[in-house]
Structure formats: C-alpha cells, structure tokens
Design brief:
The protein is of the alpha/beta class and about 300 residues long. It contains 12 helices and 11 strands.
Length: about 300
C-alpha cells in the first residue's frame, strides 16, 4: 500500500484538487493522511466531505508547527510500504502509482523511484499549458540522477534535483533516514532527500508520461521567495557538512563547500549572484570552464 501524506495550511481552496488527483489513480491500494497545520480557513470542512465518502482518507489536526511536523505526525500513523509526500496545492498524474510500483517490482534494489515534473497555473491536466519550469528558460531542469548513496552525493549537493512530490519512497529508507526537521519551514524537503541519499538510499529516475508530478504556480508558493530558498539551502548544507565530510567523498566535500558559498552570494545583492544564478552573463563562467580555466572561474565566482 501507498501512504499519501499531505500537510495543509490554509489551502482549503486548493486541497480538493490534490485529493482528487489521488482518487483518479489507476492503482487503488492507497491511504491518504491529511494533517491540518492550524488552518484558519475552510480546510477542515472541505476535507471532511472526502473523509465521509472514503474510509481510506484520514484527517488530523495540530496547532501550527510547520509542514515538517505535520509530515512527521502523518508518518507516525501511516501503514503503507511506500510513502508519497504531496503538498496541498500540487497534484500527480493518474498513473503515477501504477507506473512507479511496477518499477519497484522490476528494480528491486531501488529505495526511491521518481519521475519528471510539469508546472501549471491553470487547467492542471491540460498538457498544452504545462511548463517545464517557471524559472528562466522553459526547458527541462532536472538532472535525472540515478544511483546509490555516496555515488550520487556530489550531484545531489548541487541543488534540489526534483520536487518532493516526484518521489515515491520505500518506507524502509525513510525509517533509515529519520524524521523531517521541524525547525525548517523552507528547503526542508531538500534536507529530507539529502538525508535519504546519506542513508545510502538507491535512487532510480524514469521519464514516463502519466506519472508526472504536477506543481501548481501561484502567489503563495514558498519557492517564489528566491532569497529565502538560497538562505535555507545554505543552512541545510552547513548543517550536513560534518556528515558529508565523514563520508570521505572528496568531490562531494568540495561541491558542498562551493554550494554553501554560492547560496550565500545568491542571497545577497551582489554582482556575483548574476553569474551564479544562470543569468545573462552565465556564458562567461561556462566559457572559462570550457577553456580549462576552472581554477580561475572559482576564484572569480566563489571567492
């Protein structure tokens, strides 16, 4: 069974779409655990209508403590062998569970299976209106990382490599990685995924239409606050530095050090953040690297 965990705070106007995306799944062996994180809107009323109609849906309430605390509460109640984390404003395509469970059956070594993402502002199931990203050029951004633990750690440390709703986790790797950090209100999902990598999790990427994560773009997205995201990513990677150094993975250690500096620069209003954020002058940095002037590039962009 798949346990779908949905933290919710004042998304009563959106959560019905999220729940319906689970009801539409071609695989019906699931449960939904919704945790209301102290909402002051009509969330409880909306969810209660679904609970009355389907006993696979459970609803819990807590005082406002953040999405990580909500996810931890749901995990303590979950019964599934697999875990799907889903934000209350996002959706998944109809065959995500069917496709990813089939991959788990074939790739028995995998701890985490994940696919691609599409972004929408309206009409979530109208593929003609999907975007690959809402940041920069409209093209695929995911690095499509597959591999295990220390092997993929360097790439994983370069930045969040998939939205959390893309992943389907075995419960066993979650138990090994540990709980969500309740002190984080942003970048907490990236921290959790990195903890799964550091717990020697085996990740498998696939690209199958019908299994996409569908991420909604709207004014309340935390991800719209770019400076906050960079600052929280910086703190995440500082926090994990002792664990990363303990792995002895020299490339991962170097990338982590550079990433911390890069996040720091991006969060500040300096000329360097233009180059570090893939802006219009990014070709200079890439050109220096192509010419073999990597050390010079690092002195310019990371010091």
């Amino acid at each position: 069974m798949i346990s779908v965990i949905i933290p919710c705070y004042n998304y009563g106007h959106l959560i019905a779409d999220t729940i319906n995306s689970i009801l539409r799944q071609t695989c019906a062996d699931w449960e939904i655990l919704i945790v209301d994180d102290g909402s002051t809107d009509n969330t409880a009323l909306v969810v209660d209508e679904f609970v009355k109609k389907d006993d696979r849906i459970s609803f819990y309430q807590q005082s406002n403590a953040g999405p990580s605390a909500a996810r931890n509460l749901a995990l303590s109640k979950a019964s599934g062998e697999y875990i799907q984390f889903l934000d209350a404003d996002d959706l998944i395509e109809d065959r995500k569970f069917e496709i990813q469970l089939a991959i788990f059956k074939e790739k028995t070594f995998a701890d985490v299976v994940y696919g691609s993402v599409r972004y929408f502002s309206e009409e979530p199931y109208n593929s003609q209106k999907w975007k690959y990203t809402f940041w920069g050029k409209n093209k695929e951004w995911m690095p499509k990382i597959s591999g295990k633990g220390n092997q993929i750690l360097p790439e994983a440390l370069k930045g969040s490599f998939a939205p959390v709703c893309s992943f389907l986790f075995r419960r066993s790797i979650i138990d090994k990685a540990g709980s969500w950090d309740v002190n984080k209100r942003a970048a907490e999902d990236y921290l959790f995924v990195l903890k799964c990598v550091l717990a020697d999790g085996d990740f498998f990427y696939h690209d199958n239409p019908g299994s996409y994560a569908l991420v909604r773009r709207h004014d309340s997205n935390t991800s719209r606050n770019i400076n906050l995201i960079h600052e929280q990513n910086r703190l995440v990677q500082i926090e994990l530095t002792p664990i990363i150094e303990h792995t002895g993975n020299r490339r991962a250690i170097e990338i982590n050090r550079n990433a911390i500096e890069a996040h720091s620069l991006r969060a500040k209003k300096t000329w360097r953040n233009i180059f570090l954020s893939g802006g219009p002058f990014d070709f200079i940095k890439k050109g220096l690297r192509k010419l073999g002037l990597e050390k010079l590039a690092k002195k310019i962009f990371y010091k």
